[in-house]
Each structure stands twice: as C-alpha cells, then as structure tokens.
Amino acid sequence: MAVEKTTQGKKATAPPRVNQPEAEETLDASNDNSAKKKPTLQSSGGGGSSWGLRFVGLAAVGAAVAFGTSNVTVDDLPVTLRSLLGQNTALPSSIPPSLFDPVGNKYASELVKISTRKLLVPDASCTAAPKVLSDLVHVDAALGHADDLRNENKVFLLLNGQNHGIFLDWSKDSGCLHALATTAATSLGADPDFFPNGLRLYNSMGHPITTAADLDIDRLAYILTDFQIWVWPGVRVGYVRRVDNVTMTTISLSPLVFDCQGFFNLDEANAIIQHGSDKLMRSPVDSPDAVDGYHADRTSHTAFLDDSQFTRDFRRRSASLARLPSPSFVERMQLVRYEAGQFFRKHEDYFTSKSFLGKTDKAVTDFQAWSAWAAAAITALVDADVSSLPEGFRPGERLFPQPQDTATWQLALLDGFLQDTIDTSFYSDRADQAWATWLTENVQNQAHGIINTLLKDKGYMLEHIIASWEKRVNVDLHPSLHYIKPKDAPSAVSQYFRWIRWAKERIDDLGDRAPVHVRPDGKDYPSFRLTFQNKLVEYMLKDRTEAELGAVLGPEWATWIITNKDAVDVLLDSLRLQPRVFGLAVEAWTKRAGPGLFDYDVPVQLHHFEPNRYVTLFLYLNDVDEGGETVFPHSKERLVTNIERRGMDECSEGLAVPPIKLHASLFYAQTPQNDLDPLSLHGGCPPSKGVKFGANSFTWNADADEGTNAWGF
Q1: What's the mean pLDDT when you consider all of the chain?
Q2: Predicted local distance difference test score (pLDDT) of residue 44
Q3: Segment Disordered: which positions (predicted)?
Q4: Pairing of strands 208-209, 199-202
Q5: What was the pLDDT predicted at 647?
Q6: Per-residue confidence (pLDDT) for residue 72, from 0 to 100
Q7: What is the residue extent of each domain of the chain?
Q8: Contact by Cβ (8 Å): 87, 247
Q9: 27 phi/psi in degrees, rounded to 5
Q10: With left for phi above 0 and alpha for psi between -120 and 50, is residue 355 left, alpha or beta?
Q11: Residues in the chain where the model's pLDDT stays below 70
C-alpha cells in the first residue's frame, strides 16, 4: 500500500555498513511448503493493493456522522439522524494575522510538556484482596449511579476503552486503590506481568484518579497499565458526552468512531483554507507501486500549514480532546482538498513499512515447540491410560502432533480450526476475511505447509489454533494437555523505546532539578529520532575501548558497532540481535545525565511499543454539494446504504460518514491495548459535485515529529 510522504521527504538511506555478526541465537524455520501464495488484497476496482496505501505524512480522510446517500442533505435526513448530528453552528471569532507568524524551537516551548503518569502506590497495610461482586456487566449499569453504588459499598472498574466491567466491594475509607486496581485488572483479563510497570485509574472523563476521594465521586474508573494511552470508551452508538466544550457522539464501536461538534469555528475553518490553499499539491505517497511518488489510489491535494501559534493551538486542543500526554504527540495541521471525482481509496493511518523488531518466523518456531510438547504430553498420558483419549489423538493418528509433518498433521489441525471459526466473526473482527478464503482453499486442496505460511503473517492465530485442538482433545478431562506458552523476554528494541518514554517523563517530573543539557531543549534530551541512536553509540564508544566493548559484546560486535557508528538505525540494528547493547546505551546516557537522578528499573515483561499513529481527528471545513463521505468498510453500523461513487466501490461498504461543515471525526488507529487496529481501515470517497476541504490533525502515541523521523521520513 502506498503511504503519503511527510514534509521531511523521502525515507533516509543508511550509509553502507559491514555485515552484522550473527545473533546470539538464530531461528531455523523452514520456508519450504506447497501452500498457495498468501492473500494479495486488491482494492476493488484496481489501482494496486488497498492495504498498501498508508499515510507517511498528514493525510486526507474524513469522517463526521454515520449517514448519507448519493445526494443526501442534512434537511433530507430522518429526524433521529438530524438529532444525532445536531445543528451546524459557528462561533464568531477573529483570527489575528500575527498568529500565523513563524515560531521558534518547539523544544523551548510548552508544546513538549508531558502530563506524566500518576501511578498508584502499593500499600502494605492492604492485605485482603477486594471482593469481585459480578461477572462482566455493561457500563450503563454504573454510569450515573454513584449514589446507589456508594450506599451499597460498590465500585465499577473497566479496562482502558472498554464498555464492560465488573462491580467490586469497596468503601472510601478502605482506600487501597492499588490493590483494587490489581484485583479488577486481573479479573478483567489484563496481564499481571505488566502490573509492576505501573497501574493507573482514570475517571469517565479521562482524568487521573489518585485518591479514594477521587474514586468516590463517580464510583467508576478505567484501569491503564504501564504506558497505555487513554482511549475514549464508545459506550454505545448514539452515546453523547461533553469534553472540553466539544460534543462527542459515538457513531461506531468497532472501529471506534466519534462525531465531534464545537471543536473549531467558522473563522478558523476559513483561516485554514486561506493559509493552506496556495501550498496545495498533488498528494504524494510512498509505495513500491507509486510512479514518481504518486499513486492512482490517491488523487486529492494536500498542504501542510506552517508551524505557527495557530497550528500549535490546534495541536494543544487535539491532545486535550484525545487526552494525550503531550501536545507534541500531534502532527502539524494539514489542509486537504478533494475536487469532484478525487478520492483516497481504503487505507489505514498507521505505518507498517518498517519492522522495528525485525522479521522473524517466531510464530512458526512456537508452533513447532508446542507440537513437540503436545506429542510428549500425549505419550505420557497414553502410557498411563490410552483409553481416555478421544479417537484421532493417539500416536499414529491424524491429530497426534507431528512437528515435522507439514501435511497430515497441519491439515487435521486446520480442519478443526476452520470448523470453529469460518462461520463466526473471527476473521471479520480482525479484518482478515481474505485469509479465511485462503485457508479454506488451501485446506480443500490438501496443500502442504499451510500453517508455516499462515503464521509468518498472522502469528496471532496460533493461540486460537491451539485452543481449537485443546477443545477437541478435551483438556477439561485431560488438564495435562493444556499448554501454557513460556513467555519470552522482551525485545531489547521494546526496552529501548520504553526507556525513552520513561526518561522523557522523568525529566518532566524533575523540572528545574533536571540538568540543563537533558531538558527538552538540551543536547542530550532523549528522543525517538534516528540521530539520538548515533549519540548513544558515540557515548558508548567514548566510555569503552574496543577491547572493553568486545569483552561485553564479543570482538565481532565491538568491531561492527565501531565501523557503523554513524549509520542509520545502528542502535536498533544492534539491539535486535545483541540485547546487551541496551544496558550499555542506557548506562552511557545515565552517566552524563546526572548521578542518582535517572536510575532505571528494567521491566521483566512489557507490552511492545513503537512510535506510530494513534488517533485521527479530521475537520470538515466546508459544505459539499454531494458526496465526499468517509467510509469505514469494517464497521457493522449501517445507518445509510446504497451510496455509489465512481472509482470507489467501497463507498457502499460499512459506515458511510458524510462531510458536515464544522464537524470533526475522531477515530482510533489503535486498540485500547495500544495495538494497531486493522479494523480502522477507511477511505475518502470522491465528491460527486463541488469541492471538499478538510484538515487532518493526526496524533501519535509519542512525539509526532520524532516518530515520523524514526520511521525514516
């Protein structure tokens, strides 16, 4: 899929480097199989892969409220939909020209200020775990019922961005917020291994809860672990909340899409068009299929507004509305223009063109390890009582695990898996319908090595394949056959990215106590930028001779790092294969940052994080005569159907959102667990008549400028 280029231009090219030493451990997974070629997901109507078009800079897609036909107007809508939309209003305002003057270094401004995590502190006196009082219940059971819950000594807790939670026994006098969050998060399915990295509570307006008095106000809270970023819960379609004088209406739960009214006014809309129109150019993309940087799947025009007080104000407001830790997480505003017939075919906003962790066949290796384990477990069970096993699972039979068998064993396994999933929403919930077709065809054709090919792209399916086998062997009757996958140590790349997040927060918490050179405008401020990697390597080499470095990493690695110290991504390339480099890099920076101020506890386990797009806020700047909808093909909402737009068949699929002046759409590119969400696939339909102007306020899970640079743009 093509991806729009940023203002920084094309991807950086690394200098020539010598070959890396081998990893300390290498994976040996066979790539030899006779399964059909994996799915190539073509866009309907041609023009390249619809899954290959992703933004690199600020890109144009819109959204507003879920309705629209080929020639619908607001007045034509049913009363229920007009009431969901609200009235088009504009607040009078005057935009002084001085607000568009150039501004200075962002790192010397409040733009990089971080609202740091307010972690709950364990209390040794809280020895009894709070009692869970219910199974999963929809949040409606607790919203607005604080007095009843208080009288009953109850509290309602949910995980980040979720709509179902549990009631627990709790009184204000008992306090014990950390114990409460721990019990609830465990019951709700969060990974306890992440709890030592930090637990937080937030109220329904996305503000931190730090005291029992805070929790007692609404008796409802959301639990976030480690560095998770807030996701607005959808609650239900049609749910309305007021946030920062903005009216947010839920119009889709999956993907999560909100209509926002009151975020900007008419004068601001006109100013965005005025100050961006003279810079408009054909929207470039980054794709192997793009000729001269352009692609037939994207025909609109875009322009970045200059960095100014005006655009920085929108960055602050976007961060506040999305409850992001810092305005720096928001990209600079981009104007978008769609003339009649221009479009952007379905795409995601997040990036996947670079593998920070490196490409591996880990899921294939895990499959082989499980197969060997399960074979041994069955053999031990057979030795004790062969009659207790279901038919088909005994040695020599089809469902007896054979790690090296890429035919009979894999086909038998997939037969059961397909029976359990093919007539469910398993694939559509994950935007993997094409893989369902691929699996079905290959199993029917009795292809070899299907699982090997599948898991190289869709490793998440392994746990479901195993669960399907366990269901048939009846692990309730044979608990010794239930597999608990050993948890691998986190990648050093994951550790590195988390450390940067931590160091930025630590500096903000220290304030004036932080040494000048590590503050945001200092030369050693931690950053996701590529050059920060080179700086850390430079410090490592200053602290150790080649022989000393070789004593820790091995002579080959020492030579490699010295030779490639100025190369792009030199640190990440090292961390993927030689984890001990992480400790040396952190040690080198901490030594210069100041003794005792930045002692970092390396987590035993953590959820992988890398800089990427997080949530999109798209502003509709003008009325469009006809067309110009934004479509979310994977949404199950169908408020209006039968939209036809030339060149974009997908405009009739899923949730169609028309461009309504002075409204905005907020939709997430990541899940509440802060993983990329393929269900966020969307497209910008062409106006049939007139011109559509919009503005993108793309936000990240990290500093947006640094994240863009980390991706090589």
Answers
A1: 87
A2: 34
A3: 1-47
A4: antiparallel
A5: 66
A6: 37
A7: 74-98+240-354+613-710, 137-225, 362-481, 492-593
A8: no
A9: -95, 140
A10: beta
A11: 1-93, 282-299, 384, 386, 639-642, 646-647
